[in-house]
Structures are given as C-alpha cells and as structure tokens.
C-alpha cells in the first residue's frame, strides 16, 4: 500500500521564503499623503496643527478691568493660639505648653494678594496608526472626503478640565501588506537565523564534554531554538499573522488648563512657597474668551502681573492652540504675623491661608514633652 503521508521539513532546514524581520514602523514613502494631513512620517512625530484664523480671537483695544477695594482680614488671639496648638500637635517633638501659656504682644495682619491667570486651550495633533486587519470595516475615501484636523467633531469636556481624547479620522483607512513580514505573516527567527537549531553552549557543538556524550544536547551538538520552538520562524509581532494591516490617521485632541500664579513678595521672613498649599478669598473673578489687563487696583504689582501674564499666554498659546476661555482671579490670602513672649523671650509665628496654617522658624522647647 502506498504511503500518502506528507513529509515534514527536517528540523534545522532553512526556508528562504520566510523573510527577515522588517522595520517595526512603516518606512518613509510606505504610506501615501492624505490631503490636509501631509507631512506624516508614520512614526511618533505628530504634526501640530495650529488653529484656523477664525479660532484665534484678538483682544479688544482700550478695554480694561476694574477691581473693587477689599478689607484685609484679621484673626483673634484665640484663633491664633488654636492654630498654633493644632500645628504643635502635628510635631511629636514639640511641647504644647508654650502654645498654651505664651503671651501675645501683637497680631499684625499683612495684605497678600494672589493673582491667577488660567488659559484653557485645545490642541490637535495627528499621526498614522495601524492595527492587524481581520476583516473589520474599512472606512476609506470611498465613503467621502476626510475632514480637516480642526473639522473633526469632538465633545468638549467640562471647562478648565484637563483631558486627552484620541479620535480616528473618518475616511482615512486603507489596507496594506504588513511592512514587517512583507505579507507573509511570519518572520525569520533572529536567534537561530531561521535554522530552528542552535549550537549547544555546553559542548560548543562537539557533542561531547569531558570525553563523554554531552548530556545537554544528547551528543547532537545542537539544540532546539527556544525562541521559535525549532520552527525557524515566529509569528509576525506587528500583524499577528494576519498578513495585512489596517492603516488610519489618529487625531489626538488635548484640552489643558494652563495656570500661572503671582504673589508679591512682601514678607521676607515668610517663604512664599507656603502659599501654594493654601486657599484665599477670591473676591474678584473675571472670565471671557480673552480677559483684559487689570487697571486701577491698589497694588500696582498685581496690575503689572496681569498685563505681563496675559500677553505671555496670548503669545505662547494662540499660535499653536485654540484658546477656548480665560479666567483671571485675585484672592486675598490671609497672613498674620503673631508676636508673643514666652519665659522672657520674644518670638513670633505666622498664620496663613483660610485654613489657618502655621509657619514658624523657631519654637520654644522643641524637644520637650508637654
């Protein structure tokens, strides 16, 4: 009886039909340009799309913002003492006795304004992306012209919220052979160079070690390649064996709230960075597509900061992003310098923020127990 069993290729046989691994990203010229999205390189270099002129508002001339006068907040001795006691509780080496028994000499309220400018922007970039093609729908140019980057519809998030959304651009999809395996679905194993076997590292291919048959390769001098399991090839890591890739343009829309703060340095003994973790009383809020520099405020440094930061934001963001909204705020941040005496020595501490946080550079009896 004739044997009809199909013969299998011998292990270690080289198959020239299986290609070497190609590049992980499409090479230059592999993909065609699409109108409105020219300049893509097929890699991570995302082109940035400046907004159309209609989306770039300009500030009106001779329009300024006036701010009302406010009263500087004060705290009582009981509030200052309570704040210090709460601060001492958070320091296990501090004694509460000085805080309970100190005598206040004076509470000096200090006027501190914090100016904040927020510019909410939308930025759009795009790049070629691909995925293995397994019969999914191909939304190509046969369904219509693809929209321009700023015409792709997206849903705006809540204002002043940072968010990144990725959108597949309609009508930019097409199928192409995988660039890594050249449409084979498999690539030659780089570890064994497509042979399926590798020289035994114990006997260096001799089959014997110390005049005995090598126990690692059983005297063959070669071992099955563990990378490809002896096949000489591996499934393509890009198309996962599907042989084709679905290419499309992916639009990345980034909404970001760009914030800058300014606080005049009025108290050299108090570190301004402490203000970053506390809140104040926002007695003035101005919001528009573009806000306008503040004028006539009692603190000229705030007026100067408003003019400077508004110009900086306009120059920094209007050429690359769409400015959706701006908001400028002036907060009155409470700061009180508390002067006191304890055991015949004059000392002081600061109470700051609406949270009544405490800062002190020196505290009596720092290593004692109450």
Describe this structure in words.
- By secondary structure, this protein is mainly β.
- 10% of the residues lie in helices and 31% in strands.
- The chain contains three helices and 19 strands.
- The chain has helices spanning 77-89, 97-101, 300-317; strands at residues 48-49, 65-66, 103-109, 113-132, 163-168, 174-177, 186-188, 197-199, 208-209, 212-213, 222-224, 233-235, 244-262, 281-288, 294-295, 322-332, 335-342, 345-352, 357-359.
- The strands form six sheets. Strands 1, 4, 5, 6, 13, 14 and 16 form a seven-stranded antiparallel β-sheet that branches. A four-stranded antiparallel β-sheet has the order 3-17-18-19.
- It is flat, with a radius of gyration of 35 Å.
- Mean pLDDT is 86; it is low at 1-12.
In short:
The chain is mostly beta strands. It is 10% helix and 31% strand.
């Amino acid at each position: 009886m004739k044997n009809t069993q199909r013969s299998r290729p011998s292990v270690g046989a080289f198959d020239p039909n299986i290609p070497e691994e190609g590049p992980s990203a499409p090479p230059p010229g592999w993909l065609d340009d699409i109108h409105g999205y020219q300049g893509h390189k097929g890699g991570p270099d995302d082109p940035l799309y400046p907004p159309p002129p209609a989306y770039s508002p300009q500030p009106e001339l001779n329009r300024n913002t006036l701010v009302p006068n406010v009263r500087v907040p004060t705290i009582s001795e009981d509030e200052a003492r309570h704040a210090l006691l709460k601060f001492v509780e958070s320091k296990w080496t501090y004694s509460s006795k000085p805080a309970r028994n100190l005598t206040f000499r004076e509470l000096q309220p200090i006027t501190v304004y914090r100016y904040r400018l927020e510019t909410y922007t939308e930025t759009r970039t795009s790049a070629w992306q691909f995925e293995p093609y397994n019969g999914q729908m191909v939304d190509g140019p046969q369904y219509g012209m693809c929209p321009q980057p700023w015409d792709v519809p997206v849903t705006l998030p809540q204002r002043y919220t940072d968010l990144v959304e990725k959108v597949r651009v309609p009508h930019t999809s097409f199928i192409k052979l995988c660039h890594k395996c050249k449409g084979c679905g498999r690539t030659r194993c780089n570890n064994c160079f497509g042979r399926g076997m590798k020289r035994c590292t114990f006997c260096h291919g001799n089959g014997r070690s110390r005049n005995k048959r090598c126990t690692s390769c059983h005297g063959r001098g070669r071992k099955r390649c563990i990378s490809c399991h002896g096949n000489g090839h591996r499934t393509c890591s890009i198309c996962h064996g599907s042989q084709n890739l679905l290419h499309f343009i992916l639009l990345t829309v980034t909404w970001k709230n760009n914030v800058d703060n300014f606080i005049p340095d009025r108290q050299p003994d108090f570190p301004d960075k402490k203000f970053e973790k506390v809140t104040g009383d926002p007695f003035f809020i101005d919001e528009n597509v573009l806000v306008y520099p503040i004028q006539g405020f009692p603190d000229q440094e705030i007026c100067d900061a408003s003019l400077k930061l508004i110009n900086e934001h306009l120059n920094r963001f209007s050429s690359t992003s769409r400015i959706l909204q701006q908001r400028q705020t002036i907060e009155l941040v409470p700061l009180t310098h508390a002067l006191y005496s304890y055991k015949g020595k004059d000392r002081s501490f600061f109470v700051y923020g609406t949270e009544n946080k405490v800062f002190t550079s020196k505290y009596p009896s720092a290593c004692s127990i109450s």
